[in-house]
Specification:
mainly alpha
Length: 470
């Protein structure tokens, strides 16, 4: 047991490199978008594709890479993804225009999908069930550290160096991480009797691409526009065809029977709604702080940082505790705590001080730290070992889909409620008098969604922890 655990921590260190790179990249690039737009001479709507192309490529391929890891081997998929992520990210810093950068960001998203899809599966396979929660909690620290470091580091680089160095950061991290990962990750291949399902991969990719593109662009096109409705209809058609094909396939891309496992289905549902709620809040808080309270971007970023830092501190402890008492109560309590924090955000106004903002975000971060590791451990511990890649890809899929749903929902709520509150104000009233209550309405929505996650988490039951260790 001791030797397996010691080897597991080495494997975890290798996986954490890719996890950190992916999360740092997500948080560090956003802050440089205005500078990139000015350098390339494009507008906000155009430069947003630097982010959208990355998210679409990642979100479309997570399920595919999760299954490919089971067939071809997790090590091969992870290393290929890490190498592509490093190379494409570095080349982004050499881009001479927006078009080349968007293409390279899409390639980087492909690499990120491979890394994120199989990373949790590699960790799960490396540890005995009695240590899985603790290991996933430590891995969650790399996620929180990347999210916390990104905005501050990105702002410093964009202001004092050049936005290109934000992308060049990928190279030194990759040059250290790739050889270490090559040396440490087990060389075991995929299952000899496993076959890949190309038809399922194409249908799943089409479904997710249409869905995520509609969510990303629906606010700009209009939710009732023919483009948006057409994409949703195509996504539904692809989904129906995907289910029909998968039910007949002897080795499907995604084994739909996993949803019969209550810990798997309830855990993924609670994960989805949690990220809808979290992104509804974190997407709008910068608007509240900058436009509602008149703070600078740097001040707003510093006030937002304690949320991720709190999650970073709490995650390993909640993961270790879940190894002792299970994940159901911990994950449910974490979501209840996050829902409370989201509700408390509605008590903020234009004159609230920094401490009033920070302690509310700490409550949310504490809840997320309490939820993440036990929930992930519960999901991965409930599935048979040959389906770890599928479960791992599904976790990443729920996370990114929840993020995009959260941004879409909060944007729609803000737009509709802002008009409602503006109509109730005198014409000479400051716009922030309508903006703040409109953001509050979105926070109420986020808190309510988080409470739905509590209900989903409570019905998961206790997973058969022995499966992941077989």
């Amino acid at each position: 047991m001791a030797s397996r655990v010691e080897r597991g921590w080495l494997v975890l260190s290798a996986v954490s490199v890719g996890t950190f790179m992916a999360t740092l990249n997500t948080s560090i690039v956003n802050i440089s978008l205005p500078v990139i737009a000015g350098d390339f001479g494009v507008g906000v709507a155009d430069v947003e594709w630097v982010v959208i192309s990355y998210l679409l490529a990642t979100g479309t391929l997570l399920l595919t890479f999760g299954r490919l890891g089971e067939v071809a081997g997790y090590r091969r998929v992870y290393l290929s993804g890490l190498a592509l992520f490093t190379a494409a990210g570095t080349l982004c810093g050499l881009s001479g225009g927006l078009a080349s950068m968007v293409v390279l960001r899409a390639l980087q998203g492909v690499g990120a999908a491979a890394v994120q899809a199989v990373g949790p599966a590699i960790v799960t396979a490396a540890f005995p069930p009695s240590r899985l929660g603790r290991a996933l909690g430590v891995n969650a620290m790399s996620v929180s550290f990347g999210l916390a470091l990104g905005p501050t580091l990105g702002g410093f680089i964009a202001e004092w160096l050049s936005w290109r160095w934000i992308f060049f950061l990928n190279l030194p991290i990759g040059l250290v991480g790739i050889p270490w990962t090559w040396r440490i990750l087990p060389r075991a291949g995929g299952g000899a009797d496993q076959r890949f399902d190309p038809a399922g991969a194409l249908l799943a990719g089409g479904m997710l691409l249409c869905l995520l593109l509609a969510l990303a662009e629906g606010g700009g096109w209009g939710w009732a526009s023919p483009f948006t409705l057409g994409l949703f209809a195509l996504a539904a058609a692809f989904a129906a065809a995907f289910v029909a094909v998968e039910l007949r396939s002897p080795q499907p891309l995604f084994d739909l029977r996993l949803f019969a496992i209550r810990a798997f289905s309830a855990g993924n549902l609670s994960l989805l709604v949690t990220f809808v709620a979290l992104l509804s809040a974190t997407f709008l808080m910068p608007f509240f702080l900058q436009r509602g309270q008149g703070l600078s971007a740097l001040q707003a970023g510093l006030l937002m940082t304690p949320l991720s830092l709190t999650t970073l501190v709490v995650s390993p402890f909640s993961g270790a505790l879940s190894d002792r008492i299970g994940g159901r109560l911990l994950a449910s309590a974490g979501l209840a705590c996050a829902a409370l924090g989201l509700f408390l955000l509605t008590r903020l106004d234009g004159d609230s001080g920094g401490w009033e903002v920070v302690w509310r975000l700490v409550v949310i971060g504490f809840g997320m730290g309490l939820f993440n590791s036990p929930n992930q451990s519960s999901i991965l511990g409930s599935v048979p070992r040959p389906r770890l890649g599928t479960a791992s890809g599904m976790i990443a899929q729920m996370r990114i889909t929840g993020q995009m749903l959260g941004v879409a929902a909060s944007s729609a709520i803000l737009a509709s409620r802002l008009q409602h509150h503006l109509q109730r104000l005198p014409h000479d009233a400051p716009r922030r008098e309508a903006l703040i209550p409109a953001i509050h309405d979105a926070f109420y929505f986020a808190a309510a969604v988080c409470l739905l996650g509590v209900l989903a988490s409570l019905v998961r039951g206790r997973p058969p922890r022995s499966k992941a260790g077989r």
